[in-house]
Amino acid sequence: MAAPDAELIRANLDLVAPRAADLTAHFYALLFLREPSLRDLFPPAMDTQRDRLVQALIRIVGDLENADALSGYLGRLGRDHRKFDVVTEHYALVGECLVAAIARFSGDAWDQATADAWGRAYAAAAALMIGAAEADAMVNPPYWTAEIVAHERPADDIAVVTVRPEQHFPYRAGQYTTIETPWWPRVWRAYSIANAPDDSGLLTFHIRAVPAGWVSNALVRKAQLGDRIKLGPALGEMVVNHDAGHPVLCVAGGTGLAPLKAIVEEIAHTGLYRAVDLFYGASEHSGLYGLDDLLRLSQRSPWLTIRPAVDDLAIAGISGAVSDVLAAYGPRHDWDAYLSGPPEMVLDSARVLRRLGLPPEQIHHDPVLTRFGPPPSADRIGAAR
Question: Alpha helices of 35-156 — where are they, by DSSP H?
């Protein structure tokens, strides 16, 4: 995108940011007024959906002058929107309503140059999303149906759920997918995949039931063997570059262990056995629900070191929160770090790693905070996205 357009859009987004909630509510009101049938494509409660729109706008505007990053993100977004039954004809109306909503909350600062900049930006973004969706439709379904084949409860509020997709589900270790349950149609929540791809085709998820978490509570407390759920396409960029050959540092908090466990498995499958340090933290010992399996794996894998951490408790002579333990046993400058867990833990750990001299480009995690506040992740388990 041309620099003048990018500058206009960023300045305008900064202006309307304080009223982002009102802006997105107005946008959806306009959309449903213009085309009432579109309301059926969305969940009954729209709070999370409005937050997702804000997240997408921030990501897109942040990458306006980074063509590779932007096209990759928009391509993934276009493919993911297929599960919502979005079709090409919807994009024009969405663009009209979005620009109208932004104009309303821009006040006197709105002018023709700003309107034209937003129009060009949206048209380019929509073209990329549409192209990606059409290409994906030639090789993949809009979503995958999967049967629950195992359901374990390592803790009262945690379930380890394993599913068998009816069709091959392509993904990389460290990625996540979105899940829709039969109990809450049109409500999708993101969960990290806790195992590396293998010949079985099975997918495992670590899910914690959280207050007001419709999907998480359904999967933990209602789901049974034989139930069927829907999966969106694999998403996320927290994957290991096996050509780099750097040692790997993993920092997990609670059920944020899921994608990092998958990464460790994938490294084991490659047979390269690069050094891996996995820091695993929780607020209490019961939160380290997968610790025994990790320790057994480390006993037969000399390249893997497990460092547990519980707040205010010493384990094997190691004490303190996971970021404190990381500060004491952290890596050299040549490690690649992967962080997953509660947003506060991820941000604290990233700050520790930067202080230890790790370059920012070697610290990998999915987005956790934005200018508009924390992500809409009441149901989000695994990597903080």
Answer: 47-62, 67-80, 88-106, 112-137
